[in-house]
From TrEMBL:
Homodimer. The lineage of its organism: Bacteria, Bacillati, Cyanobacteriota, Cyanophyceae, Prochlorotrichales. This is cysteine desulfurase. Keywords: Iron, Iron-sulfur, Metal-binding, Pyridoxal phosphate, Transferase. It comes from Prochlorothrix hollandica PCC 9006 = CALU 1027. It is an enzyme of class 2 (transferase). Belongs to the class-V pyridoxal-phosphate-dependent aminotransferase family. NifS/IscS subfamily. Pfam families: Aminotran_5.
């Protein structure tokens, strides 16, 4: 029995995405910047995908800039603002950001920028009053992740964005884990920049997007032919983006039903493991991604056994989970997110994440809970 529970790392491409990608590769492979028939067919496919992605998040198509993924979108947002200044300014980011935001922020810090790492509570939530108090006259950008990929906590983005807007500071959020799982309406949400990733919504890997609110000025991430409004030069990957658009269209139609289904399965898994003493739930249970279950494992010998130990043993049993973010799960180090939430350096090695998706069933949840208990019991006898 094979059970995949790592949908926050990547999702399998849906049928519509595969069909869209294959169709372009086979029959509509023109360069969308070319003026002839072949190019214009590709340009139409590209703009259709842009419309589909824009519809998913309630944006205008002209506000969607295609990138090669969520990491590039985050970098374009952070560095695109920063490079508009001649002198270092002030940046605010939360202490629980994905590395795609945290690393550019650290690089800016090394270049003389002042960076405020906004703290969180034990559930991983930012206090809006802390953001209010952190804003300075030279604050150039605020970036707070929407849904945290390791612990599932959803931030009060509307409130945080409103604070930023009232101060006249651009506000960015990484919504890679939120899109397709919770409703997004950028017509009303006070956000100026928002990052998306195709392969988190059942599209192909290698595509993403940055929403850039009309009127906001960014410096280009790549310079060259001037594609993507001059912000991301280079011939667009039309086939991959067609798959991204198709996946976005599917997600927009099925979002409400899938959100409720996943949340019910999520709560079922939490409940089945509620009396397991070695598992401590992490993140906010009420303000939470609908597909996300996470724990800190208090192993019998913490320096020797980590969350990765559980990942390896469940993999042997045919169940795929992860130890924190997929971008960092190959490293044996305490989770910066759990450390920011107040966990000590030993227990911050014990984080595990089980994320659910389109193929997850109640039977999968029940079997996973049973196997996880058995693995924990066996390891406790070591």
């Amino acid at each position: 029995m094979q059970i995949y529970l790592d949908y926050s790392a990547t999702t399998p491409p849906c049928g519509a995405a595969i069909d869209g990608l294959q169709s372009v590769l086979r029959d509509q492979w023109g360069n969308p910047s070319s003026l002839h028939h072949w190019g214009q067919r590709s340009a139409l496919i590209l703009e259709t995908a842009r419309q589909q992605v824009a519809t998913l998040v309630g944006a205008e198509p002209t506000e969607i800039v295609f990138t090669a993924g969520g990491t590039e979108a985050d970098n374009l947002a952070i560095l695109g603002i920063a490079q508009g200044y001649d002198q270092p300014q002030h940046l605010i980011v939360s202490a629980v950001e994905h590395s795609a935001v945290a690393e550019p922020a650290r690089w800016l810090e090394s270049q003389g920028w002042q960076v405020t790492w906004l703290g969180v509570d034990g559930l991983g939530r930012v206090n809006p009053s802390d953001l209010q108090g952190a804003i300075q006259p030279n604050t150039a950008l605020i970036s707070v992740i929407y849904g945290q990929s390791e612990v599932g906590t959803v931030q009060p983005i509307a409130e945080l964005g409103a604070i930023a807007r009232s101060a006249g500071v651009p506000f960015h959020t990484d919504a890679v884990q939120v899109a397709g799982r919770l409703p997004l309406d950028l017509q009303t949400l006070p956000v100026d920049l928002l990052s998306l990733s195709s392969h988190k919504i059942y599209g192909p890997q290698g595509a993403g997007a940055l929403y850039v609110r009309s009127g906001l000025t960014l410096q280009p991430g790549l310079r060259g032919g001037g594609q993507e409004r001059g912000l991301r030069s280079g011939t667009q990957a039309v086939a991959t983006l067609a798959g991204f658009g198709a996946a976005a269209a599917v997600a927009a139609v099925g979002l409400s039903g899938e959100q409720g289904r996943l949340a019910a399965l999520r709560d079922r898994l939490f409940q089945l493991l509620a009396d397991e003493p070695s598992l401590r739930p992490t993140g906010d249970r009420h303000h939470r991604l609908p597909h996300h279950v996470s724990f800190c494992w208090h192993s019998p010998d913490p320096p020797r056994l980590t969350g990765k130990t559980l990942v390896h043993h469940l993999n042997l049993a045919g169940i795929g989970i992860s130890a924190g973010s997929a971008c960092n799960s190959g490293k044996t180090m305490a989770s910066p997110v759990l450390l920011a939430m107040g966990y000590d350096s030993v227990h911050a090695l014990g984080g595990i994440r089980l994320t659910l998706g389109s193929s997850t069933t109640a039977a999968d949840i029940d079997w996973t809970a049973l196997v996880l208990r058995q693995v924990i019991h066996r390891l406790s006898q070591w």
